[in-house]
Amino acid sequence: MPTDASLPLRHIAVIMDGNGRWAEKRGLPRSEGHRAGAEAVRGLIAECRKLGLEYLTLYAFSRENWGRPMEEVRLLFDLLARFLGSELAELQRQDIRLQALGDLGGLPFASRTALTHSIAKTKNNASMVLNLALNYSGRHEIASACRRLMAEGLSPEEVTPEKLSEYLFTAGQPDPDLVIRTSGEQRISNFLLFQCAYSEFYFTDTLWPDFTPEELHLAMADYTGRSRRFGKTGDCS
Ligand code: FPP
């Protein structure tokens, strides 16, 4: 990862899009696209760990994704449960801590169990945090943070952006420096709405299953050429 102090790259977040189109292009069922997508996830995690990234966040299932055909939803959660089962040893070996962003109570039992098991087993790992956004919605996350602030009786003056961020799923984590979206779509789709305030965005036409480590390097090289001003002018230190 670039270590230039003026352009840190600690946290990458990815909207993995295009599994269905990848499959359609090959005359395959959408399920094959998701399977190939899971392979790309494996490759990306390994590459990010190798490069020394501190946080990697993957948008794996949004709240809105429940609107997909039931069969596809079931397949996605089966894939997730199997992925977690097969990858736990690798997460341990690579000292990666797994965390989840989203309302896990709504997940099917098998994937929720696999998830909580992997989260517990990896909780002391410290080389990289892997956030899986599941049953996630940025708007719900913010609304739920506000509800909890109110339930705890905070006064209006105490409700600051810093305070609110302590009630998000990402509490304690740095905001994403770089958000990547694959498949040519250029929108945020309810992803990390609060946390992306000053993230840099990188859009590529590459479909998610084709997103290789080389594609990651292209995104990083592009990011390295950016000038991040966080609302200031280039002259401010
Ligand atoms: C978007 O492609 C992708 C998803 C909705 C789910 C992402 C899931 C994976 C990458 C596979 C499994 C994940 C893990 C963590 C093991 P799409 O179906 O919307 O593609 P389309 O826009 O071309 O139809």
Under CATH, the homologous superfamily reads: Decaprenyl diphosphate synthase-like
CATH domain topology: Undecaprenyl pyrophosphate synthetase
* The CATH top-level class label: Alpha Beta
Largest sheet: 6 strands, parallel
Helix content: 40-55%
Element pattern in H and E = EHHEHEHEHHEEH
Supply the key terms:
binds farnesyl diphosphate, Undecaprenyl pyrophosphate synthetase, alpha/beta, single chain, 41% helix, 7 helices, 237 residues
Question: What do these coordinates show?
Answer:
- This protein has 237 residues and is of the alpha/beta class.
- The chain has a single domain (11-137, 176-224), classed as Decaprenyl diphosphate synthase-like (Undecaprenyl pyrophosphate synthetase).
- The protein is built from seven helices and six strands; from the N terminus they run E-H-H-E-H-E-H-E-H-H-E-E-H.
- A six-stranded parallel β-sheet has the order 3-4-2-1-5-6, with helices on both faces.
- Helix 1 crosses helix 2 (30-51), helix 2 (30-51) packs parallel to helix 3 and helix 3 (70-93) packs parallel to helix 4 (109-121).
- The mean pLDDT is 95.
Quickly describe the structure.
The chain has 237 residues and is α/β, with parallel strands linked by helices.
